Records
---
Amino acid sequence: MNGILNIDKPAGMTSHDVVGRIRRVAHLKRVGHAGTLDPDATGVLLVCLGPATRLADYLAAEGKAYRATLALGATTTTEDASGEVLVRVDARAITESDLAGLLPQFTGEILQIPPMVSALHHEGKRLYELARQGITVERAARTITIDSIRLSDFVPGATASATLEVVCGKGTYIRTLCADLGAALGVGGHMAALRRTRIGAFGINAAILLDDLTPENIAGLLVSPSAALAHFPLHPLTQESEAQDIVHGRSLICDLPEAAVVRIVDAENVLLALGRTDGERLHPFKVFG
């Protein structure tokens, strides 16, 4: 079994819980996920099976889209609804125009300080492990890319709320975006709900419910490794001798332009390796065959 499942993760499960469930359904140990979702979050979670687990980093690096609920007037310890409320402020003075006018400042390449409740490391420990101990450490701001933020709904009031459609790059924390928006409006805020609607070409409309997976149908629901990486250039091999060269790590003459990642497939479109080109030769660096 070798491929990727586009799962619609339910609330109340960790990403690791989903992997464990799929291991049992598939009767397979080699299962992993690409791009963690918090337990309370729902939506697209890519789960890799078999050799496709080696593609997880490439899939996780793809652009993502989210639907987030921003709750104004309350700041929490975790920047989301699971944390303790630190400060409450009456947010009824905030209008839809106030929030809409602020969004361009949070679009493009911006600096963001990662939350304490994150999987980043600090002196050998993950930040969320320190947070559970009540420890807060200084975190350096990182450059992230937010391609767009669309305000699709706004409900005014003392506890105003808004629905945001966010398209962003790897490493963006939506909970921190919500907290930063609330701070910029002067009333504080946190992320009340989150649903991931896309990773790369994998959208929520094609996602599979966990309860719909069975040992009988799971293989037929897999997206092939080559198809999952369709955004990378393709180099098909037509000769068995070429395939043998690739699986043994030998380079080939290639007329593809210079590229950091190329899909190398056999005559049946099975992914044999990932390679890179220098404009003259194709050099495999991750072999599957």
Note: The longest strand covers residues 142-155.
---
Amino acid sequence: MTTIAHISDIHLAPLPRVMPWQLLNKRLTGYVNWQLKRGNRICPEAGKNLVDHLLTQPFDLSIVTGDLVNLALPAETETALGWLKRMGSTKRVCMVPGNHDAYLPGSLDRALDTYDGYATGETLDEAPFPYVRRTGQVAVIGCSSAVATPPFIAAGCFDKQQAERLARCLEILGNAGFFRIVAIHHPPARELARPLRKSLFGAKLFRQVIRENGAEMILHGHTHNSSMHTIEGPNRKVPVIGVAAASTCPVSNAPPARYNLFQIERLQHRWSCTMREFGYQRVGEDIVQRLQLRIY
């Protein structure tokens, strides 16, 4: 049996000291939003306790689907590296970037240089995404939807070149008999295509790749909600699973901090996959198992 953990949208807080010159760009609107809205929803203690709880669980690999930071300040990126190291070694933790990790032009390159082995794996060529991590019978395919966007836009992008590489990865790993998990920050399901300013451009192309090549599961973040949808595969519908943001305060109006655990094993000629969701309830300060669900 292989156990996979999924956590997302860490939005590490508090913000480091921000210099005025660092706000002469898109960060200004993000900083104002933090002061008026987002900062009130983020609870560093809740995020720390959630990770502490996750680290008590036996898992083989954890997947972090982006948005470790808020404004992509250099100090935030360094803090995020420390957070990743606390989660585990590069062999046990893999991450794909989100829109906040690519907040400004150049932010994503600097972040990936800093995170290094946490955001890398086997690749088909020199392109960094998608990359593949294999553990037991499971193969994680990490895609990037992270691009710098104008103020008030939090959309992602999945282009033709990455689609071609993803298709090839899925084909190779499918032929080898792996349980294929595709990790991406922005959700590709049609039901989550609105509002447009937060959606995934290229989602139709992503769905086409899955429809033609298959996958066993797709994990995403971005919405700050726990959710489950499906998209078409060649023989069956493929689960698309999102997880609530990892540092949302239990007392906020948003879904409180959560993570998911997937237990995966092959039973003769079929897969077995059970998901357990852990996190805060609306009432109380304890982290509990909120549900258990059979995926396969």
Note: Residues 8 and 221 are 6 Å apart (CA to CA).
